[in-house]
Amino acid sequence: MSRAKAKLPSSLVNTLTTHAGPINAITFSSLGGTYILTGSSDRQIHLSRAEPPTSDTHTASKASLSTTRPIQKYAAHGYPVLDIAVAQDNQTFASVGGDRAVFLWDVQNAEGTLRRFGNNTSQGHTSRINCVAFAGEGHSVLVSGSDDTSVRLWDVKSRDAKPLMVLEEAKDSIASIAVPGNGHELVTGSVDGRLRSYDVRMGRVTVDVMPAPVTSLDVARDARTVLVGTLDGRIRMMDRTEGTCLRAFPPEGNVEGYKNDSLRLKSCFALNESLVLSGSENDGHVRAWDVLTGKSVGKVDISPAGKLVSVVKWREGSQAQGRQGLWAGGGVEGVVKIFASTD
């Protein structure tokens, strides 16, 4: 029986115009993803509703809903915000950027941070932090990667200011971190062109050499495959056990106008991991490719002015909650657009 062709959801349901600078980070809340957190070069993080307060997507899209004021603003950063991670319980989130510290926030309280990991110890990061992720049982650990070439692990529950562990195998900036769902691994992507998988429990690291600097990672739910974005204009789906490339997007010899050779683009799996999504440096579009065939399944114009779209994020739908899958994209224009399926 043939599989139904996966489609890129393309019905605009919300436009967030709350930021005053480029969008560098997008993440949905856990447990259904009702809310969206966005981080910008304006040094702020904004909390907004992902969808309009109506279940009628068609009505909302016709109304061209635009959110101009966030529910909450978090404004303690002194430099551009580059990444955001949300804890499983939705009570806290972490953010990083040029401040050289990992900020931990209480979602309900925008007045200030709960903690700042790394700024009260000589063992903190010494340069810009590009990426952050929760790890460990109950999301009790934060993992951060920096231009100082190190990855640091922080104990959220301990009052000790020192990192739990420092990983220093990389020879250049750490651009991306992904945490597989098995709870004892970390995957890091570096500008030195290496994909490193750490088994923290066994104290082992596996290194895969990529053809160009690594800028983006997304690990599949089964932890067996990882999506790797690199600065040679390709996104590769890698088998983590064998270290082999299962498929590359766009297909060889068919770039389809996609460009990524100088800037960090955050790509992701989408639609129950049947699609790969990515923005582009040159034309303001977000493209989607079929995971099984590698073929293009469409593109959506995020920036009519053709500006950089640097980050896309997918939120899986839930039949129990009557929600469909959504994706959000943003970039240099400072606007985040959220799309859903018209089905």
What is the secondary structure topology, with strand pairs?
Blueprint: E1 11-16, E2 23-28, E3 35-40, E4 45-49, H1 57-62, E5 66-67, E6 72-74, E7 81-86, E8 92-97, E9 102-106, E10 115-117, E11 129-135, E12 141-146, E13 151-155, E14 165-167, E15 174-178, E16 185-190, E17 194-199, E18 204-209, E19 214-219, E20 225-230, E21 234-239, E22 244-249, E23 268-270, E24 275-278, E25 285-290, E26 296-301, E27 309-315, E28 326-331, E29 336-340
Parallel strand pairs: 1-5
Antiparallel strand pairs: 1-29, 2-3, 3-4, 4-6, 7-8, 8-9, 9-10, 11-12, 12-13, 13-14, 15-16, 16-17, 17-18, 19-20, 20-21, 21-22, 23-24, 24-25, 25-26, 27-28, 28-29
